Task: inverse folding
């Protein structure tokens, strides 16, 4: 066992608390940087996809793991982000702005969802979010002038200025950059009053209130931030899949996102993420249900069920 | 014109009623399990689907007489319900409700995959003695299958009411749903009660599946109406059986009329719009039986 | 100087009158204990002051502010902190984080500062941490700093909860049965800790307590409550000898 001698309180609010951590995370980053030179385009694409889902996972983790609000409808935000981004791009808005507006838009919808969601908890909340996502799916199917309805929608290629980011390597780095910044912001939230307020709301609403925490505000912020992250993931996902259809963002995806968070352990960032993502990555190859158009969509249900059986403590309390 | 409109409304009301009954039945399945075990079974809709397929197998493939096939399918589903309770749910007692929810979602996947594996994904139709026949009076056409659905629901509800009010087992189940520990102290076997609850709940779902089979064809995906039934259960107040039926009827009828008056696509979301509105106005449903925890 | 005043406070739950026309006031820096048999309405009184329940009639005045329209989370900002009978800590967090959540009312950063953890947020964290460390020293919680609440014994949890309330730097703290579940030794320590809170931090204490030994050692005055009504209020000795109090306890 090694002992870390702390000399000031400043050390405790750092993300890397000692040199060992800094060293290992730098190594990880170097490895991630070297992948484009080592791996084929196919695996780079898969890695980018993992990064995208990890961003969505951060969003859901903040809401479900840290604030204790279960959402069975997060695919809706993925869809909102993807469609908004594709739509703004098609209007000729540059990539960076379009993505930012999509994130804000997704956040706004998240804030609106918070209004009914504030009144209910537990299973009622799960179903309210589920209902919300089904409504969103229907809107995406029928708002033909914007979304193309069931015909779907082509996503313009990403570019900054005149530089195309279409290549697998460029897209990989973009996703990596967004994932790193999302993780950083996620960790910032957790070491700030807003993140602590979230955990307080999760563990005891009554006592959070007596500590001066505004429940409605905290939950609304949690919804907004969570929807923002998931919207960002949606925007990136739009480029990854290239072609949007309303049923790409259905209940199965919501459940999958939730499982990703739950299997990884709802209260831990970083490592468990990677673990849940690795699971996410390999599950399709173990699964027998492979007829879906995209094989990420349906990993083997048995594997998931077993995961939760083995490690029930990783689930949030309802 | 006015007459025609009236006819149309009556027609919609009737189909809404029968559709609502099916939602209500599945919703009762949810409510039964929730009341007894405080667990939410998300596979309820898939149990319905599986029940319908079993009935199809007995009647159309093994050529059982209709009534016999029906009873066999319902009994088989009751058995499957009890098995699920024994092997998937009982080991989870004491774990967070959320884990159980996830397990039932996983079970739903398994049932859907299993049904796809056994019966394939093409829609099948269940041969019934009454399918395709209609009553007609005053210009209103009512399919026999719709009447059977409503009658079947009524019969099942009365049977359940009778069971809970008069039989010892029913009373014991009610006691256990109020307070499991207290029920155990007075000598009620809570484990047995839970098995029976799951069996009854699965049997009700199977019945709903058999009732709906002549109206909509059976395929592995029909279990998804379980989500609407879930909305119905919440609209009705999650702890109440009559509430579940009422919620089902509201959603069933609401859907039909939304289809008439609103642009296409709206009838699909009616159930969820009703649910969200209900959560806004009356978060605990119409017939509330949930009590706010005193601190 | 009066810090808290209740005037004819009443509340009923579905016909049951839990609190009936209760009036009393407490002075700045005072330790006032509320005693009474189970079901007397003691905790209900706390929940009324912290606005978890709304009054049916009467008024509660804290530091010249009438708590009528105040929402539950604003009570803490006014300077009232509380603990709970069976502890309501943030169970999956460490002791330190619980104390830091206690500092929440002093948050001066906005969401942007926090999302990007700007200088302002960093400085604030350090201030919060020092504040929490002071409380840790005051209550001797050093060895539990990074322990999660779920793995702490009940006695320590009670103490952490008091610490969390103190992190708010309140003017008044409501302690709901601080000695319940403590062993005699811990109760003995509690006497000194309550004195420290009163003397060193200058915080007024309103406390529900059954242990008459602790009550008479710490309280300036004692209020006896039964069936939602005030029986008497006065010095500990007087209250214990009051015939109505004896009757209420012995039935």
Result:
């Amino acid at each position: 066992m090694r002992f870390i001698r702390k000399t000031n309180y400043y050390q405790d609010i750092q993300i890397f608390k000692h040199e060992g951590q800094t060293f290992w995370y730098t190594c990880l980053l170097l490895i991630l940087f070297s992948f484009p030179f080592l791996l084929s385009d196919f695996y780079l694409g898969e890695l980018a996809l993992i990064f995208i889902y990890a961003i969505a996972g951060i969003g859901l983790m903040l809401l479900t793991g840290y604030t204790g609000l279960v959402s069975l409808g997060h695919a809706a935000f993925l869809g909102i982000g993807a469609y908004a981004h594709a739509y703004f791009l098609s209007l000729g808005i540059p990539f960076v702005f379009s993505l930012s507006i999509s994130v804000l838009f997704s956040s706004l919808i998240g804030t609106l969802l918070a209004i009914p969601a504030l009144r209910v908890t537990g299973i009622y909340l799960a179903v309210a979010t589920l209902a919300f996502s089904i409504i969103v799916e229907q809107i995406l199917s029928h708002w033909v002038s914007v979304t193309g309805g069931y015909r779907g929608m082509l996503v313009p290629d990403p570019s900054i200025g005149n530089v195309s980011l279409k290549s697998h390597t460029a897209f990989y780095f973009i996703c990596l950059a967004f994932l790193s910044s999302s993780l950083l912001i996620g960790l910032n939230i957790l070491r700030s009053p807003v993140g602590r307020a979230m955990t307080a709301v999760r563990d005891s609403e009554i006592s959070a209130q007596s500590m001066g925490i505004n429940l409605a505000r905290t939950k609304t912020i949690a919804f907004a931030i969570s929807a923002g992250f998931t919207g960002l993931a949606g925007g990136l996902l739009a480029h990854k899949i290239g072609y949007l259809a309303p049923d790409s963002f259905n209940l199965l995806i919501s459940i999958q996102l939730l499982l990703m968070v739950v299997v990884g352990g709802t209260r831990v960032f970083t490592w468990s993420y990677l673990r849940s993502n690795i699971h996410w990555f390999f599950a399709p190859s173990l699964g027998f249900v492979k007829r879906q158009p995209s094989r990420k969509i349906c990993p083997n249900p048995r594997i998931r069920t077993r995961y939760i059986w083995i490690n029930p403590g990783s689930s949030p309390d309802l | 014109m006015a007459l025609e409109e009236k006819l149309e409304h009556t027609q919609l009301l009737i189909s809404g009623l029968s559709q609502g009954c099916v939602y209500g039945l599945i919703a009762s399945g949810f409510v039964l399990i929730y009341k007894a075990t405080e667990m939410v079974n998300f596979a309820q809709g898939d149990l319905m689907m599986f029940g319908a397929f079993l009935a199809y197998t007995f009647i159309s493939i093994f050529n059982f007489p209709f009534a016999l096939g029906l009873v066999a399918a319902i009994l088989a589903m009751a058995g499957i319900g009890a098995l699920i309770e024994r092997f998937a749910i009982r080991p989870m007692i004491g774990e967070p409700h959320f884990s159980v929810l996830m397990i039932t979602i996983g079970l739903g996947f398994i049932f859907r995959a299993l049904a796809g594996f056994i019966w394939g994904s093409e829609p099948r139709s269940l041969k019934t003695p009454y399918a395709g026949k209609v009553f007609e009076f005053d210009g209103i056409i009512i399919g026999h299958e719709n009447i059977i659905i409503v009658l079947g629901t009524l019969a099942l509800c009365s049977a359940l009411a009778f069971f809970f009010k008069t039989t010892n087992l029913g009373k014991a189940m009610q006691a256990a749903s109020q307070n499991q520990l207290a029920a155990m102290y007075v000598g009620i076997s809570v484990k047995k009660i839970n098995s029976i609850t799951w069996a009854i709940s699965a049997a009700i779902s199977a019945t709903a599946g058999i009732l709906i089979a002549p109206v909509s064809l059976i395929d592995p995906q029909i279990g998804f109406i379980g989500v609407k039934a879930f909305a119905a259960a919440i609209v009705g107040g999650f702890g109440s059986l009559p509430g579940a039926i009422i919620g089902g009827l509201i959603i069933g009828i609401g859907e039909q009329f939304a289809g008439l008056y609103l642009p296409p696509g709206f009838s699909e979301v009616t159930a969820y719009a009703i649910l969200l509105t209900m959560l806004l106005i009356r978060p605990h449903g119409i017939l509330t039986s949930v009590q706010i925890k005193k601190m | 100087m009066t810090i808290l005043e209740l005037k004819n406070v009443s509340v009923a739950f579905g016909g049951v009158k839990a609190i009936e026309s209760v009036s009393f006031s407490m002075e700045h820096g005072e330790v006032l204990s509320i005693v009474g048999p189970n079901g007397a309405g003691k905790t209900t009184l706390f929940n009324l002051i912290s606005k978890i329940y709304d009054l049916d009639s009467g008024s509660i005045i804290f530091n010249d502010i009438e708590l009528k329209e105040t929402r539950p989370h604003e009570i803490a900002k006014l300077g009232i902190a509380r603990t709970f009978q069976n502890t309501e800590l943030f169970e999956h967090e460490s002791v330190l984080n619980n104390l830091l959540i206690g500092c929440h009312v002093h948050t001066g950063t906005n969401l942007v500062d926090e999302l990007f953890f700007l200088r302002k947020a960093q400085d604030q964290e350090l201030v919060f941490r020092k504040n929490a460390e002071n409380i840790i020293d005051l209550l001797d919680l050093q060895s539990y700093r990074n322990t999660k609440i779920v793995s702490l014994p009940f006695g320590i949890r009670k103490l952490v909860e008091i610490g969390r309330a103190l992190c708010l730097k309140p003017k008044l703290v409501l302690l709901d049965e601080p000695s319940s579940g403590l062993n005699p030794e811990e109760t003995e320590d509690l006497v000194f800790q309550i004195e420290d809170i009163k003397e060193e931090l200058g915080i007024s204490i309103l406390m529900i307590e059954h242990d008459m030994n602790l009550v008479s050692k710490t309280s300036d005055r004692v209020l006896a409550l039964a069936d939602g009504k005030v029986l008497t209020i006065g010095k500990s000795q007087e209250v214990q000898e009051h015939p109505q109090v004896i009757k209420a306890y012995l039935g």
About this structure: The longest strand of chain C covers residues 2-13. Chain C has a mean pLDDT of 92. Chain C has one domain: 2-250. The first helix of chain C runs from residue 42 to 49.
